[in-house]
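Retro notes, item 3 of 5
We never archived the inputs for the alpha-D-mannopyranose complex last cycle. Fixing that now. Sequence and ligand:
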Amino acid sequence: MKIERCPLNPILTCEDVKPSSEEFKVVGIFNCGTATYHGETILLCRVAECVRDTDEKTLGVPVVVRGDDGDSHIEVKIFSKDDPKYDFSDSRKVTQIGYGKTSVAALTSLSHLRVARSKDGIHFTVEDHPFVMLDPFYEEWGMEDPRITQIGDKYYIDYVSVASFGVTTSLLCTRDFENFERLGVIFAPENKDVAIFPEKIGSLYYALNRPVPDGIGQPNIWLANSPDLIHWGDQKLLTSVSTADSWDSTRIGGGAVPVRTSRGWLVIYHGADRNDNYFLNAMLLDLENPTRILGKLSTPLLKPEEEYERIGFYDNVVFSCGVVAEEDVLRIYYGAADDKICMAEASISELLDALLS
Ligand code: MAN
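Structure as it came back at the time:
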């Protein structure tokens, strides 16, 4: 299946983003939700920031705290890199070791969501300020990986809320990408990679989601439904990781918001192999019964091959949270190596033929 990367990739990098405060430097703009609003393409980007001044011996990590006055602010927690209790080898996190099971003690960066706008879908201007201030409780460690589902004139944004007690998925609603309403946590820990379908099927809304079992089971893709976008249940296992050593043997997760086509719901999703390299693939779900998979590509649609996908904040990652479909063209926006935004195009009819062959 042919997929064409935009020749201008990466279309957004850290240099295009103003830090949210003088204390920080931007270390990544990636994994963006997509929408079309007033003739423009909107990307709601995940922007990751680190503390600007730390010496070689220490690592300062930003966390959101609520002050005595009730307002939230960001504090920097300092780790000594010589401390034997911690492992600093993963660029994304500080891992606590030595108490039997390992656990994440902190993330090395704090992510928030930022709006970027474009008239042509390729040249984007990133706003100077975060779209939403982080909540000091559920978003103590940040907001990540937004997906935007347009229903009527409302845009529902689900995103990953990260806190020391767990990773949840929360929901926001906006009509104009300036004002928003918080709708709270919709999936309890650990659940992420939620992609809400853009219309009801029968009388219910549907969402892909990815719970992470501790003990028995693997991180697989599930399908839930809801009467109101807030209360989700009736979970069904949709598809599982490969049992063979493959691009999708470690974890899989929903990616972009599904696109309705004449032949089924087109879903772009991700998988990771045992080396934690991330790939994108496509599957097609039945229009009336989305628990039925009509087809999957046998080899990934997009692999981390270009230098900008292979080298970055976290190497060898392509990860999508949104696409834009226009006539026969599917524009896939994706994060590359956890620090840039790229775009690639595929023909929808060719994809459908490949999925159903
Ligand atoms: C996680 C996701 C993404 C990220 C990848 C690769 O699974 O939450 O945010 O892009 O890891 O680091």
